[in-house]
Amino acid sequence: MDWTLTIDSASSSSTSASESLSASEVFHEEKVEEEEVEEEEESKITDIDALVEGSETEFDSSFTPFTLRWTYGRNVHVPFVNLTSENRKSIFYSAAHIGVLYDYEDKVMKFLQGHQNCITSIASDSSGKWIVTSDAGKDNVIIVWNCETCLPTCTIFDPHGEDGTTLVGMSPDATFLVSVSNSKDQIIACWKWTLGEKKPNGEFILPFQYGKIHRIVFCEDKNGDFMLTAESCVLFGIWEDDNLTVHIQEKPKSSKLINCKLCCSVYQNYSHYALTTTDTGHLLMWSDVPFSSVFNNEIPCNNNKTLLKTLVLDKESIEVIKAYKEIIITGNVSGELRFYDKMMKILYWVQSFQLCAITEINFHLWYEGSTDKLAKDGSCTISDRVDPFKPFYALEKAFERVLEKEKEKLAELRLLLKAAKKPEKSAQHPDEALIGDIIRDVLRDVEQWDVNETDKEELIQKIIKTAVDHVESKLSAALDHTEELIEGFLSSIFSEVDEDIPAKHSRDVAHAVMSEIMQSFDHKMDNNGENEIFVRDVLEEMIDTVSIVEEALEKEDVDDSKGLTELVVENVFQAIEEKFAIDTQKVVELIVRNLIKDFEKKESASQREIEQVEHEIEMGKHPKIFCRLKKIIEQRIEKNDELRIPSDATLERNPFVIGDFMISTVNGDIGLVNFINNTYTVILDKCVSPITALDCHVGKQQFAVGNASGSVILYNFIKTRTKVLETHLNSSEEEHGVTAVKFAPSGFFLACGLADGSFWILDSSVLNPLSKTPHVHVDAPITQICISDDSLWIAHKDTEMRVCLYRCEDPSGAEIEFMGKQKSHFKPIRDLMFMRSLEDELHLYSLGEDRMLVEYDLIHSEADDLKILLIERIEQSAIPYCMTVYPKFGVENFILVANSEYKFKIFNDDSRLCRKTALGPRFEKPVSKIVILPKRQEKSQCMVYACEKHIGIQMLPLDGNPYKSVGMIGHPVKITHMDVYPRSKLLFTVGEGDHAVLMWTINTRAVHIMAHIGGEGLDPYYCLIEGGQNGWLYKEIQDFFYYAQILHEGENTTTERNVSHEIPLCEVPDLMRAIGYFPSEHEIGNMLHEIQFWTYSDNGKPQKYVSFEDFVKLYLNHQPAFGTPFRKLQEAFEAFADDEDEEDGLIMYRETLISMLQERAECLSQEQVVKYLQVLLPSTQEPGESSSSSGSSEGSLWEFLPEDITYKAFVEDILGIRPPPKQKDAEKGKSKEKSDDIVTLVGDVVDTVLSAAEVSQEEILEEDEDKTEEEDECIDDFD
């Protein structure tokens, strides 16, 4: 089950002070934070019973073993979606099978989880509310998500069968979907998803000779029209009246275009054009009307278009093309952006970003959103596309948001106003007139004082400030009369200007008024972040305020508007620059964006509309400051070249300004382009090539990755969550990927292995090599590096089954000595590790697919002479996949091994004897990676494991309890690397071919809850027994268990029997065979040894008896996880077949079968072979008669066997096994009809055959996933 998870995490920027802390201080701070988190999590598990027994139906994350927290990288082959709008700064992209909604302003990720396969395509509607994702593979789906809630709204299962979906698109109004199948002949399907349709409403099949479809684009003006771009053709689709019509237009057959591939297509706005680019730099122009009518606004648009013209736009491949209003933007493989007008004439280009090939261009939603009106018939004309002009200023509404009530008053200045005499009411508002009169009188008195000019000016400013404070408080209480209040206040000041009052005070008063109002804006800006919407509102409010003041000053004939305007503009720039820490260029952009709106609309408006706008300006509906402010900005820009607005490439050099947009490159990075500033800001770091190595730092909150291009990248996963450092290790021209990385436990160095066998030691802080040249002692890719706990020994393995050993002079890794290499395995090495014994001696082990555990002699190894201490086979038939040091639960050290038969095996590190076999997780593939988690106080210790695609948590100690393991899909493909941050519950995973690292939070509480649900005793094991507790198998196990007690005491006895719950160890092998499990002699030895040492670590005594409960657990842990596959017997027969017949198939000679049973694997004696085969295949003579006759010849001994044995005869006649039925009747549950003796004999023969085949041709016995379920039926029915 997959859930939709939402991760909200605040970003925090690192400071230079924190970077200067010592390592111990940083570690201490991190440890304190981790302990607080652990205490918080432990407090949640105090009452599991209440949680389990509760009736809450809402989703509880406590049951989720892993919660996705962050992704580093993305699927570079899947385009991203720009969801940035006026109130949201987000993008949407995919990482593996996860959809990521990333708020790049607040640094928050939300995850859309619902796919089991890698996401192949994503799209959204024009509003950004709905998102659609698709995948290809087994159980593929198309999911429509609500972008606001991050929850799935509609899911279409297997939309194109097993082929899956390679491309999906959503109409601008989100009413229907268009999907393209991943089949050879691609199927184009339309879905009315809003009606819950499970089958496509329209389909069209594109023959494979046209190539793969790789782009979908919709017409913003007509929702039913869309265009698909294939390698050699363009498809114009029309979805109308629930009917799908597709017109195929092939590329021209000219010599220049015969070998080109089509790259991208777009509809040109306000025209009938559709444009397609090629990898040769050509542009194909499609239209449904002649060239003379392309821009005719009276002709309805039709999507049945043909080729009208071909142009050469570039010398290189044009990877992407986009339309913005009437401008066309292209991006090529050299990272160059070009801008064209509607006639495809070059207007502007950008080369300064130094990017690689551009793959995507996406404008913000408020630029791309269509506000055009559609005609009733669905057609769209050019005149309909012009937006009506809206007044730029809203004076009263804007000013109401500006003024704020001042809470503090200056007590000392109130004394100056207290003695003033209140005049009679004036025509204005009385309070404002009063304040004006008081200020006028005080100013007249101040001028007559005998004080220096500086003190006089300060006093005047204080008086003015007090007056303004009072006015602002009044304005806040009467916002309905803002304009009258300001006019009354100013007119009362300037109505009777005496000669005693210098004229300069008029400017002082006006400037002071604006300065005080600016302070209110400053206060507002202090409480807001860098919000573009807010800054724009502030600018508009400032302009509105100035226009009101100007009108009041003009009424009083005070000619100071120019100086006042300049003051306001300067204050605007200064305040925004200081409060938002942005440069003036950003401020200019925000102002110009508003100022040029009128200019842009004039260009596309009719002459009548232009005259109407000019008339409104002349009538005073637009303040005169509009023109003055524009001139001031232009003068300010002329003084600073960095603020200069770009101009186009025409002779007129007209200003060229477009909105911000985002681009992505072939390297995977996503960046924001600020056109006016000519800047490129990286939002998502590049992920050039697949990640091939991963490891976490043992102390710092960092992890390192290596990729296929030879780079090592260091990430910080807590504070900045971004790339910290990057270095390239390839010294030659040929690039070799980094195949292994490993941090030293000391934290001082990072060891790196490359695909060419070179071995580097880097400084972990700066990623600089500690030596000028790498250590090269092998010529094959290094696949794993391990370092001892004291950081003094380093070992690595490669694909040629070699192990190399190095010794460090000190933990810093500055000087290392090569100790030699050994090719100790004849099959690939699966794992390598250091381990300390009880005597604190260091050991180095390697584990291979040859089933060998090799220990190396570190004590006696010298320079360039690595010695092997011992080689021991630890598996008989299974292939070991991984190993680790098992936690100490007693006085012994153990090695934990996971194998291909879904088993965990625990070996004593000294004797190498198997002390425990436990059933592991039973996903599609067995466990291939394991990491032991640190023990958390009194909780049961856990470990994290990875199968092919799944990740999970296993509770320790291992006992085969299926409820002590929980897992989920971690990656859509094979998990190649997995590591745990040792100081926190964080898991990092990488999948095969992935460009992204997934960071998960480990929730061990989930496995504790599941273990509690499973119960105690045999309760959690009943689900592993066919039929459960009341089934036939469980009852049969009980019967045979107590019958084994009778057999042990003797069947023919009259004494009173002592029936107990235990049986002696000697009865275990036969009891196992009686209930249908036929272990080999090696497996029997493991079982008996396991029983004997169950309690050895506790009391030091071997155990001689086994209880019924322990026997059931022993049986379930040792029997094959999915039974014995029928195909395994067939493969064993094929390994020894001598001949092949056209009718009977493979044939084995009688002599071959006899020699195999007597000489291979766990061989049988001649007497045993004769006894078993005569019971299985009775002859006319008594069993054993021929064998006891001294005169019988060797040939007559085997006369009852046919000379040529076919596979059918071997299975049905000799072994007596019926072929697997097509359907199994689970309700019958009858026991086997053959006697127990015959069952035991069959088991011995089958086991010997299988074991012999494994020894001779082990490679034939590898599991084949493509076999049908019918072939996987167990061998459990006998004739």
Care to give the gist of this entry?
By secondary structure, this protein is an alpha+beta fold. It is built from 28 helices and 61 strands.
Question: How would you explain this protein's 3D organization?
Answer:
This protein is an alpha+beta fold and 1279 residues long. It is built from 28 helices and 61 strands. The strands form 16 sheets. The chain has a four-stranded antiparallel sheet, with no helix packed on it. A four-stranded antiparallel sheet has the order 2-3-4-5, with no helix packed on it. Strands 6-7-8-9 form a four-stranded antiparallel sheet, with no helix packed on it. α7 packs parallel to α9 (482-494), α9 (482-494) crosses α11 (532-555) and α10 packs antiparallel against α11. The radius of gyration is 41 Å and the shape is globular. The N terminus and C terminus are likely disordered. It is found in: Cell projection, Cilium. Pfam families: WD40. Residues 9-25 have a biased composition (Low complexity). Residues 32-41, 1256-1279 have a biased composition (Acidic residues).
Which stretches are poorly predicted, pLDDT < 50 over at least 5 residues? Answer: 1-59, 368-434, 474-487, 492-507, 579-585, 595-607, 616-626, 1180-1193, 1222-1242, 1252-1279
Helix content percent band = 25-40%
Helix vs. strand class:
alpha+beta
- What's the total count of β strands? 61
- SS element count, helices: 28
- Write down the Rg: 41 Å
Spatial ordering of strands, largest sheet:
1-56-55-54
Tell me the span between the first and last alpha carbons.
Answer: 41 Å
Strand content: 25-35%
Major sheet summary line? 4 strands, antiparallel
Overall pLDDT level: 75
Gross geometry: globular
